[in-house]
Amino acid sequence: MLYVLTAAFLVFFAGRYLTPGSWELPWWVTAKLPQQLDIWGWQVPDNILAGLRGTDEFLRRQADGLRRGWQSFTGQGLEIAGVKFWKNTGGGGSMPLPEAGQLTVDFLDVGQGDCALIQVDGHAMLFDCGPDDTGTYVQNYLQKQGIDTLDYVIGSHPDEDHIGGMDVVVSKFDCGTILMPETEKDGKSARDAELAMNYRGYQAVAPWPGQVYELGDAFFTVLGPVSYYENDTNNNSIAVRLVYGSVSFLFTGDAEKEEEADLAAEGLELKSDVYQVGHHGSSTASSWEFLREVSPAYAVISCGAENRYGHPHEEVLERLAAVGSAVYRTDRQGTVRAVSDGESIRWSTER
Ligand SMILES: [Zn+2]
């Protein structure tokens, strides 16, 4: 007990009085510090590395937590003096490694939020990164899948439930192209994501409809946003249609019926085998007209159990049933996985 108290006091003291910058290591040491450091399976938090590096704005901002004093124990990790310690074996799901010659799409159970991992022949991309408190969960999941590079990271729109985990993803993985829409980004999550991108020297680009990106033997077409909506991040969501052989997946972020109408009017192919249900199954999205165009055989709803918005809404479940979609839900089934050989789709769920 005495040891614990002494250790706690030392950490508290260090957090209180040592400010980053005052204990910087020489550049030839900091240059050798890895992006991520594990000691006995525990991650050295970014903000401790920040103190050691003392140079990067992103890390320095995170280091503010060091001075906040003793905080709390959390379910997923240990938080001392504003510094989160994560056990690297905690969380991250349990899906097997993907097989060669197949497309694997995982709809991660990130609670009330979106995060889809797409893998094909050693290539990987992320459509949304989950909320703030699941960044490390997503990181662990990706690491368990053997991923160190993401060809693409898409932040559909800068809301916390989609890009909260983006700072972790961007700072821990090598990223190829980062896509984000042109829209207001004044939330904390958006700032954190931007700082993390600066830290890694990345810049997000805004795609336009009709653009095609290759992912191994698969490709995706950008469908939207088509128009710009002021003070409305949802309707500026990036929407993409992923194609592998003859199977297709549609992702629309939190696009509402207005953007759905734009997508339909734009005339690009919408018909898809799998539809990640827009805006977590909100009745403001997945309009009749749009659903009939997409006509998905399968629908995946990513939402938190007993979330405060009541997602998915009954009307949407009825509409999905009416167009004949089989529905998967992360709130009930955990992480949902679709595997395809380019002709058919096999499904598995975490529970
Ligand atoms: Zn959302």
Provide structural commentary.
The chain has 351 residues and is of the alpha/beta class. The chain folds into two domains: 2-87, no CATH class; 103-349, Metallo-beta-lactamase, Chain A (4-Layer Sandwich), CATH 3.60.15. The chain has helices at residues 2-17, 27-30, 46-53, 57-62, 135-144, 160-163, 166-172, 188-200, 257-266, 288-294, 314-322, 330-333; strands at residues 37-39, 42-44, 78-80, 83-87, 103-107, 116-120, 123-127, 149-154, 174-179, 212-215, 218-224, 239-244, 247-251, 274-276, 298-301, 326-329, 336-340, 345-349. It has a seven-stranded mixed sheet with strand order 9-8-7-6-5-17-18, with helices on one face. Helix 5 packs across helix 7. Residues 15-22 and 68-75 have low confidence and may be disordered. Bound molecules: zinc ion (ZN). The site of zinc ion has 6 residues, from helix 6.
> Secondary-structure element sequence?
HHEEHHEEEEEHEHHEHEEEEHEHEHEHEE
Q: Tell me, what is the CATH class of the largest domain?
A: Alpha Beta
Looking at the overall shape, the CATH architecture of the largest domain is: 4-Layer Sandwich
What's the name of the CATH homologous superfamily of the largest domain? Ribonuclease Z/Hydroxyacylglutathione hydrolase-like
As residue ranges, the low-confidence spans are: 15-22, 68-75
Radius of gyration: 21 Å
User: How many individual helices?
Assistant: 12
Q: Bound compounds, please?
A: zinc ion
Percent helix range = 25-40%
